[in-house]
Write a structure and sequence with these properties.
199 residues, alpha/beta, Rossmann fold, 20% strand
Length: 199
């Protein structure tokens, strides 16, 4: 299980989408959110877009492994979906904010936390302007939030600098490959071999 965390505009979604295209054994966790879909986003593919009332009902019933309010919108990760995928032996990747990452690490300490950095705050702000999805006030809020988010990078296992996209994607792929070679995942994938060799 991997978590990819980044401030808005760092290129997290683009990197994760490219990673998924190159590695079909990864399952992307589908987060629930109360925000409106952006241009090109589809319900059930990018997010489960639900009302605030629906979100609060799910939260109060204990359906979320983590949830957080980000820029005035609510986001949550389904506990039952994550657990079912991991029980099947699937590798799960989450696009998540640092608050959610902290909550999930409490439940699953062995989760791999990857932090995506922009090359600079100035570059981040330029990307947000080029994206053309937010007004000036929202961009200012996102830049201010980025300063806070980046202060939590020391909690991550890996940091990837997204200055050159191809390099950042290659780093991300290397982290995924290395995570699969850790002892616990390997023993889970090859229990009969481990048992036979250990006998």
């Amino acid at each position: 299980m991997l978590m990819v965390v980044a401030p808005s505009g760092a290129g997290k979604s683009s990197l994760v989408n490219a990673l998924l295209e190159s590695d079909h054994s990864l399952q992307l966790s589908l987060s629930c959110t109360t925000r409106d879909p952006r241009a090109g986003e589809l319900d059930g593919r990018d997010y489960a877009f639900i009302s605030k009332e629906q979100f609060l009902t799910k939260r109060d019933s204990g359906d979320f492994m983590e949830w957080a309010e980000v820029h005035g919108n609510l986001y949550g990760t389904s506990r039952s979906w994550i657990e079912s995928q991991m029980q099947k032996g699937s590798d799960v990747i989450l696009e998540i904010d640092w608050q959610g990452a902290q909550q999930i690490r409490q439940y699953i300490p062995q989760v791999i936390w990857i932090f995506i950095f922009p090359p600079s705050i100035e570059a981040l702000e330029q990307r947000l302007h080029k994206r053309g999805q937010d007004d000036e006030q929202t961009i200012a809020k996102r830049v201010a939030a980025a300063h806070i988010e980046l202060q939590h990078a020391h909690q991550a296992d890996f940091i990837v600098i997204n200055e050159i996209f191809a390099d950042a994607l290659r780093d991300l792929q290397a982290i995924v490959a290395a995570s699969r070679l850790r002892t616990s995942p390997m023993m889970a994938r090859y229990p009969a071999l481990v048992k036979r060799l250990g006998a």
